[in-house]
Amino acid sequence: MNILLMILDDWPGHTAWSMPTIDAELRVPGARYDHISSSPLCSPSRATLLTAWEARHHGIRGNGSAARIFADTLAATSMPAQLKNLGVHTAMLGKPMNNYYTTSANSVYPTPFAGWSRWFVFKSPDNLDATYSVDGVETFVLGYSLGVLATEAERIIRNVPEPFFIAYWPYAPHDPISEPEDVGKFKTDLWHPPSFNEADVTDKPPRWQLALLTSSQITTLDIRYRKTLRHLQAVDRAFAKMLGALTETGRLANTLIILTGDQGVTLGEHRHPGAKKSLPWQPVLRTPLYIRGPGVNSVVAGSRNHLVATQDIAATILAAYGIADLRDGLSLWTSLGNPTAAPKREDVLFQNWSTDRFDGLRTRNAAEDDMYCVLQGDTGGEQFYDLTVDPDEMVSLHAEPSYEALKTVRASRLTALLAS
């Protein structure tokens, strides 16, 4: 089996509708899950995707020296390294980790991480005319990087013997741009859910009781949203290019395609004025997860309504190649083949160690769908949302007596997971 793993960078999951090829060829015929980022910041999340370890176990908790830590302590036993040891051609294309290149002695660039047969990685992520490490050789390539990376993926698909594992991890839509053919699209589209510039934030922890957005900030957020939609058109074209190569070579039927994001970002929800991550709310924690290919029940495709932790994605890939040690992850193979299978997990532990230090629990079962979180070091730092009635997280119920018993259950479960 081949695997194409597409990870979008800071992807607001509610924008998925804008990519027609991905919608028709991946979402509709595939299995759909809610991916909950177990550590909603780029490098901790990416390290989990590459190891199946949660951040509290792999040790990368921020972006600062992430690439150096990964190269020195994790790469040799990572998921791709294990696949390569089995004879799988492994290719990393794009952005594996933050701060791969730095001006300090910690810089890893241009040395590839262990575990990769092909290394085509940004020196520093860019959308246009970028410098890459190509198997350890500095190489400047003209062109939009989404297309450059898709061309490299196409070359592998057409020329490299099976099996192969391609990690297509572009710098999109992290810093969104408009490629020429997309200029002028989505001129009037807005993302103003009920939580946008939220009227009352007194239920939020004190440090998140922000001022109302100004008209200038709202304009900036609207522009970013439209630019994100335009940038995703180029993601869609890149996917179409890789899908075309898989189809033309007869390799599509033997290729598992996985698409999700490392985490999402806010775009004005709860008054946050920019594209913010490292926050415990659904626009940041949750991104769509689409999977199609061998082993996926395409006759009864669609949503499994299951929660999936970041480490489960890596575990599913390990299990696809018969590797038994799934570390912190749980394999999705049972539900991929059987949409009515019971979820492997009812909750996901999520954590953040940056300025806003928090531990939280996202829970979903047959009767309940909620989020409990504790912001460390802040009076009034508890949050509890019943997502069955409040999907936009407008009113925290942490002080509501009728929810005290359920909140106590969640707090106990969170304490137990943190101790495990």
Kindly describe this structure.
- By secondary structure, the protein is of the alpha/beta class.
- Helices cover 29% and strands 22% of the residues.
- The strands form 2 sheets. A 10-stranded mixed β-sheet has the order 6-5-4-3-7-1-8-9-2-10, with helices on both faces. A 4-stranded antiparallel β-sheet has the order 11-12-13-14, with helices on one face.
- Strand 11 (347-352) and strand 12 (358-364) form a beta hairpin.
- The two termini are 34 Å apart.
Number of separate strands: 14
Helix content: 25-40%
User: Uncertain segments of ≥5 residues (pLDDT<50)?
Assistant: none
Radius of gyration: 21 Å
Question: Topology, please?
Answer:
Elements: E1 2-8, H1 20-27, E2 31-36, H2 42-51, H3 55-58, H4 66-73, H5 79-85, E3 89-94, E4 118-122, E5 128-134, E6 137-144, H6 145-159, E7 164-169, H7 215-248, E8 255-261, H8 282-285, E9 286-292, E10 302-309, H9 310-320, H10 333-337, E11 347-352, E12 358-364, E13 369-375, E14 382-386, H11 404-418
Parallel strand pairs: 1-7, 1-8, 2-10, 3-4, 3-7
Antiparallel strand pairs: 2-9, 4-5, 5-6, 8-9, 11-12, 12-13, 13-14
Overview in brief:
With 420 residues, the chain is α/β, with parallel strands linked by helices. Helices cover 29% and strands 22% of the residues.
What are the salient characteristics of this protein?
about 425 residues; alpha/beta; ten-stranded mixed sheet; four-stranded antiparallel sheet; 11 helices; 14 strands; globular
